[in-house]
Design a protein that fits this description.
Blueprint: H1 22-29, H2 44-53, H3 60-73, H4 86-98, H5 102-109, H6 113-116, H7 121-128, H8 130-139, H9 144-147, H10 151-165, H11 168-182, H12 189-209, H13 213-227, H14 229-243, H15 249-262, E1 268-273, H16 276-286, E2 295-301, H17 304-317, E3 319-320, E4 326-327, E5 340-345, E6 351-358, H18 359-367, H19 399-408, H20 414-425, E7 430-435, E8 440-444, H21 449-457, E9 464-469, E10 472-474, E11 485-490, E12 496-497, H22 509-521, E13 542-543, E14 548-549, E15 558-560, E16 567-569, E17 581-585, E18 591-595, H23 599-606, E19 612-616, E20 628-637, H24 642-652, E21 656-662, E22 669-678, H25 684-692, E23 697-702
Parallel strand pairs: 2-6, 7-11, 16-18
Antiparallel strand pairs: 1-2, 3-5, 4-5, 5-6, 7-8, 9-10, 9-11, 12-14, 13-21, 15-19, 17-18, 17-19, 20-22, 20-23, 21-22
């Protein structure tokens, strides 16, 4: 927490309150104890900001926290030359101005005591309670002495896990990083760059996801100045060039005020300047900036209904730019953000972007989860829980955080966790899809059915054989859209596992880690190309990205004449007892066992490759009770729920689906090809009868697929 921060004047502030003189606060902090009946002057600004949001707040605990923090940090100095106590004071002031409640501010004052002084967690717990102790522990770094190079990623893992129980942990961390970034210029350039990159890749996305826009925008500008100084200077010069001129948004704002007054709508209309990075993005998007692109109009009203009333008046009295309209009130962003966005053409043709929201929405848009206060205030027993690790119902724990906490458990290697975390946080948009069981799944934009399978079923998704999206059969590679309904189809064979091709379609860390883990644990498991139906042409049958099986169809119950060699049941004809079988020697000396009538056997004979004799191991005609694999083709007329009914018939016969292919309908007819694992070959006739009994199915036969046997 003791990294230093940047030049305060490097980035324009959007705060209404002037920056506090930290050197003066430092001198005040060193003056020693104060009378017990009043707060030290050093935290007077914190108290003032806190009371602005919480008029009835009890400041006594802040007094006690400050006294402990000041005495424990006394004599410590920052690299900037300021007394160390100025840092926790500044962090606490940031949070107080955002509206954080008293417990958060108490922990913020103490957030570096356990890490940098002789104060222990037990002392914090004894003097300030379990919640404050939990927050302080959550933001305390792990020692490099103990963790070496893994200290930073493992510290972030620790903070994220703690955030899963209490989002106030990350609120303190974000404010801590903001103050450190403000004074970062005292560090060496290479260290500035390293800290700025971590801030860009991890902290800024976390601030965005938690909705703390006030912190996120300032962090973006500070990082921009360090990592892209030339572009930053160009942008600064652009903004400076228009600062002294009359604001082109001012006459439009006055027209909007007059329009709303005439309509009887009580509203506050403000001009909201864009921050540096926002101006830079607009410039890159449009090439040349319009005079009105340096800010936006912000309209604040009392109730949700007033937002739509304002929108109606603006679209009636001004020419709207329809392509700019977005309704984030009816459909809030995943980070709690709510507003109406639109753009209108002003009296002289100038285009102004407009944000419309209630005062409450504005507070949440600026402060995110910080504005929600204590997430456990509704539960009077929450603060008294003895163990901070106990699961607590947190209304502010969003879906992305739950997913992150799930996959991080599988990423035991610090490097894997660190790389995956950055990749996960780089996904800046989220979609919502619905399972057929009514469950809602939050996924990153671009997620596929593979991602949905692992999000809904965890490791059971290893056996997924396909999906239905909005009621229609789809491949697992299908990219999902916001609002889709997804039904995942799972095989009953628990030995099945994912194909390596699934990694090409997996966007979520949970899916990628699970797939990679299974493939690493089963390096010898063959892919579907080794034994399933042949890959179809682009205009032919569409595969349902089948799972692959661990057993791989190896013939333990086949006897082949000649020297002992590895044997495998052919995927092209999938022989089962009591089929007449024959062996074909393939590259490497292994033997692939085919049915006698398989076309592959005839082709081998035609090119002069003699088959070898093979038979089932038992002597009663091959009715072995060992498991076997078979490929069946079901010919049917197309109808709704056909796939579901066929899958149910297969499951009823105790057969596991290894892979499945469905051809596009032709003249209302559909062909389904299934590779199945049966516990007993004797059950094959009954299985085929059960499939024929499905309504619409007029034939079920054994498959004959072309296969490469050389």
């Amino acid at each position: 927490m003791s990294a230093e921060a940047a030049d305060p004047a490097a980035v324009p502030r959007r705060r209404s309150r002037p920056r506090i003189d930290l050197r003066r606060l430092g001198r005040v902090a060193l003056l020693g104890p104060v009378p017990r009946d009043r707060l030290p002057d050093a935290i007077g600004h914190v108290a003032e900001a806190h009371r602005a949001h919480h008029p009835d707040a009890d400041l006594a605990i802040l007094h006690r926290a400050y006294v402990l923090a000041e005495s424990s940090h006394r004599g410590q100095m920052r690299k900037s030359g300021e007394p160390y106590i100025t840092h926790p004071l500044a962090v606490t002031l940031i949070l107080a101005e955002l509206g954080a409640e008293t417990t958060t501010l108490t922990a913020s004052l103490l957030h570096d005591t356990v890490e940098d002084t002789e104060v222990t967690l037990d002392q914090v717990r004894e003097q300030f309670g379990e919640e404050v102790c939990y927050l302080v522990d959550g933001v305390t770094k792990l020692e490099k002495v103990d963790y070496g190079a893994a200290a930073e990623p493992e510290t972030f893992r620790k903070m994220l896990v703690a955030t899963g129980n209490d989002v106030r942990v990350m609120s303190i961390k974000l404010a801590d990083r903001l103050h450190n970034m403000r004074t970062l210029t005292v560090m060496r350039p290479e260290k500035q760059a390293r800290i700025a990159k971590v801030t860009r890749d991890v902290l800024i996305p976390l601030a965005e996801r938690l909705g703390v826009q006030a912190l996120k925008t300032e962090l973006e500008d500070l990082v921009f100045a360090i990592l892209d100084p030339e572009e930053y200077e160009d942008t600064r010069a652009l903004i400076a060039g228009v600062t002294g001129e009359s604001d082109p948004l001012a006459p439009i704002a006055e027209c909007v005020r007059a329009t709303l007054r005439e309509a009887g709508i009580s509203a506050e209309v403000l001009i909201r300047p864009r921050h540096f990075v926002s101006v830079h993005r607009v410039r890159r998007k449009r090439g040349e900036l319009r005079p009105t692109d340096f800010g936006r109009l912000l309209v604040l009203v009392g109730e949700d209904a007033d937002c739509y009333a304002v929108l109606g008046e603006l679209h009636t009295c001004f020419t709207p730019v329809i392509s700019e309209f977005k309704d984030f009130i009816a459909a809030p962003k995943f980070n709690l953000y709510q507003s109406l966005h639109t753009a209108v053409v002003g009296p002289e043709g100038a285009v102004a972007e407009v944000l419309i929201r209630t005062h409450r929405m504005h507070k949440v848009a600026e402060a995110g989860v910080v504005a929600l206060g204590n997430p456990y205030a509704h539960d009077p027993t929450a603060a008294q829980q003895a163990e901070p690790s106990d699961e607590r119902a947190d209304p502010t724990r969003p879906g992305w955080l739950s997913r992150l906490l799930d996959w991080q458990e599988s990423a035991t290697d610090p490097d894997t966790f660190w790389t995956t975390l950055r990749a996960d946080l780089a996904q800046d948009r989220e979609i919502t899809v619905f399972g057929t069981d009514g469950r809602t799944l939050g996924l990153p934009a671009g997620a596929s059915c593979v991602d949905a399978a692992y999000a809904q079923h965890g490791e059971r998704a290893h056996t997924c054989i396909g999906a239905r999206v909005n009621g229609r059969l789809a491949t697992l590679s299908t990219v999902l859209s916001d609002g889709d309904t997804v039904q995942l189809l799972l095989a009953q064979d628990t030995a099945s596992g994912p194909s390596p091709e699934w990694l090409d379609h997996a966007r979520t860390p949970a899916a990628r880690i699970a797939i990679t883990g299974w493939l690493s644990a089963h390096p010898d498991a063959p892919g579907p190309e080794a034994e399933g139906p042949a890959e179809p042409a682009a205009d032919g049958p569409q595969p349902i990205a089948p799972a692959r099986t661990r057993s791989g169809g190896r013939a333990a119950n086949i006897v082949v004449d000649g020297p002992e060699s590895p044997t495998r049941l052919a995927g092209c004809c999938t022989p089962v007892p009591p089929d007449e079988v024959v062996g074909i020697v393939v590259r490497g000396g292994a033997v692939t066992v085919h049915r006698q009538e398989c076309p592959a056997v005839a082709r081998m004979r035609e090119i002069g490759r003699a088959p070898v004799a093979a038979r089932w191991r038992d002597e009663d005609g091959g009715r072995d009770t060992a498991a076997c694999r078979v490929t069946l083709v079901a010919e049917s007329f197309g109808r709704p729920r056909l796939l579901a009914d066929l899958t149910e018939a297969i499951a009823t016969a105790d057969a596991a689906i290894v892979s499945a292919t469905v051809e596009p309908p032709s003249e209302q007819r559909v062909r389904h090809t299934y590779t199945l694992q049966l516990p007993d070959a004797a059950g094959l006739p009954a299985l085929m009868r059960a499939m024929r009994d499905v309504a619409g199915v007029y034939d079920v036969s054994r498959a004959q697929h072309p296969a490469a046997t050389g």
